[in-house]
# Entry
Amino acid sequence: MIKPKTLCLIGLLFFVTSYVFFSQVSLNAQKNIDLAHWFNLIGAVLLISFNDVFPKNKINSVASVLTALGVVSHIGLCTIDFVMWSFGSNDIGRNELREQISNTPLILYPFVIVGPSLLFLGLVTHALNFIKSNPISSLMVIIGGPFVGLSYFIWNNGILMLLSCVVFASGLVLLLYRKETKNLEIEPINNRI
# Structure
């Protein structure tokens, strides 16, 4: 059986790879298979493993729910994007579907606008557990996560989106392999001499 930490790493690798595709490659050029969304889908599903590797507490409970909801939303978003991709050069059909989704709030909000952000929000919430013990790596996650969305939706900048995703993922890797600090009772020097 694969360890949860290994699943987290594989998930991050797939997730970042999907953002390489999103930032560099024209998605319409993917004729035989939509690699960008397959990598994103697999990566997002594996990222749910972060719920198992971090300490269990109240913050973790909230983060786990947000992460799970975000994974479900990513599955929905990727499914929508697979259908969009299947239209190939049929821009009229794709635009009709896009308009239909835009006019259906019960699909638009949970699977396109709000839902996928919950994955980032969940992982950012997990990182809050470590803000005192691992401030740099926690801040990488806390700042990198929102910047992925801002760079895509607000600034429409693929390179900044990719860099934000790399910072976000790197912070998670550092938190995944952080040194555990334990409250060990230090033996007085007198007793060792």
Summary: The CA atoms of residues 84 and 94 lie 6 Å apart.
